[in-house]
Amino acid sequence: MEATKAEEPFLRHVETDVLIPKMMREKAKELCAEKVTAFNHCCKETGFLMVFKCRDENAALKECLTVHYRDSAFFEECKQEYIKEKLEFQRTGVAAKNRSQKLPTSM
Q1: Which of 71, 41, 72 is nearest to 56 (CA)?
Q2: Are 82 and 15 in contact (CB under 8 A)?
Q3: Second label for 93, Cα 20 to 30 Å away, from 45, 59, 76, 83?
Q4: pLDDT at 105
């Protein structure tokens, strides 16, 4: 029995607890790019003292990321994107990361 488009496909435990949160982390890092850059710059500049000298940058980065991690609408957005990618993979057999590559053209 095939699921209709209105129904959401069943998501396994690993998808809801690992794969979708992983997607959320990647997207949150993009949304917090400015804070990620500031923290990385601080770490590169201070070396081993980064634990002490980059506390403000680290706190700002954690706060930005946490806002996204706790946002249920953001989770739902990532979940829907994951489902779309999963259904496309089931349909085509091509993973999302491979889909963006150019297909060879015949001469």
Answers
A1: 41
A2: yes
A3: 76
A4: 54
H helical segments located in the chain: 13-14, 20-31, 33-46, 50-53, 55-69, 72-92, 96-99
The tokens for 78 are 């990532």
For 32, counting Cβ atoms within 10 Å of its Cβ (0-12 exposed, 13-18 middle, 19+ buried), the class is buried
Q: Which phi and psi (to 5°) does residue 102 adopt?
A: -70, 140
CA angle 41–54–50, rounded 5-degree value:
85
